[in-house]
Amino acid sequence: MTPTITKELALRYARQILLPGIDLDGQEALMAAKVLIIGVGGLGCAAAQYVVSAGIGEVTLVDNDVVELSNLHRQVLHHEQDVGMKKVESAKATLNSNNGQCVINTIAQRLDDTALGQQIAQHNIVLDCTDNLATRQQINALCFTHKVPLISGAAIRFEGQISTYLMDQNGPCYQCLSYVFPEQQLSCIEAGVIPPLVGVIGSMQALEAIKLLTGTGELLNGILLLFDANSAQFQRFSIPKNPQCSVCANAH
What we know:
Elements: H1 7-12, H2 14-17, H3 23-32, E1 34-38, H4 42-53, E2 58-62, H5 87-98, E3 103-107, H6 113-121, E4 125-128, H7 133-146, E5 150-156, E6 159-165, H8 174-180, H9 188-191, H10 195-214, E7 223-228, E8 233-238
Parallel strand pairs: 1-2, 1-4, 2-3, 4-5
Antiparallel strand pairs: 5-6, 6-7, 7-8
């Protein structure tokens, strides 16, 4: 059922409805969409706040962690009084205070392949905001299986990256990227991260989701966008589809 844009909602989203690439049809598409955000740390907090404020109809947050004091310098949905609280619940409370009309589901546990696959299949887009390679590879494989677009972000030290995978037969998947650009096995805990960096990359993940759902703009499909926060420079690289990829090669 297509959501109805009331006069109040038209006023709320007026500044984006004015955009030629979005207008009323695009706003209705956002309101009808379901977005799965895996990881409610620095990237997930930044991505979720813009996904929800843009009017996405339903968001599911997945994270089994609790808020720690060391999270607060970069994870903007959590607050001092939330330390010790499940991250998904802290984030939901903050997001609901911005947009009470968005349905926000929470899953405060690590999901196995079966459970995660079921969640992915029920959503239009997946935002991977996790911080370890094994989980990213798990998400990628399941997104490819269920043909659900994946928007992947990563940030460490002063370096960030983002890419979008439509999970069709023509483009690469995240596993193809790992053959070309092997990922460091470090997390923010070991290497540190500058707070605004996760805001930049997480916001761009939300931007990619909005563009994909509304059909506007150019997506980072098969493109790795690197951001160096030290020099404030972006670099773009094409991600070749690997004919021997263990996930997407010869799949039907």
